[in-house]
Amino acid sequence: MVKLFISGFPLNSTELEIVQLVGPYATVSTIKIVRDKISKKCKGYAFLEVTDQKEAEAAIDALSGTPLGDRELTLNIVEEKPVKPQAPKRPFGSKPSYNSGSSNNYDPQKKKRPRRTT
Predict the structure, then answer these.
(1) Torsion from C-alpha of 80, 46, 9, 21, nearest 10 degrees
(2) Distance CA 21, CA 82 (A)
(3) pLDDT of 7-33, one tens digit each?
(4) What is d(CA 53, CA 33) in angstroms, rounded to the nearest whole number?
């Protein structure tokens, strides 16, 4: 699978219209139009997954720079970033252990220094 970024289509476009636009050049398996969370209006770009690298390049060659309405299409291949391993999670309700290292010299038996009175 190859992920494509597409922008420059009209803001009132639907998923079906974009798939029909890219369909002659590449087999689209998934599409996600990015929308505003509150207003649900299209932000003007989408992500597509196509089945083959050659098809993705053919779609880019055929459609990049094509005027569509008052806008111009832009297609790019999305480079996959390596996934960072997540830090292990603590069980619910547990407190972090601050006394786990040797650099912490806390001694519960040690008496505190008296406060200074001025």
Answers:
(1) 80
(2) 30
(3) 998 888 889 999 999 999 999 999 999
(4) 21
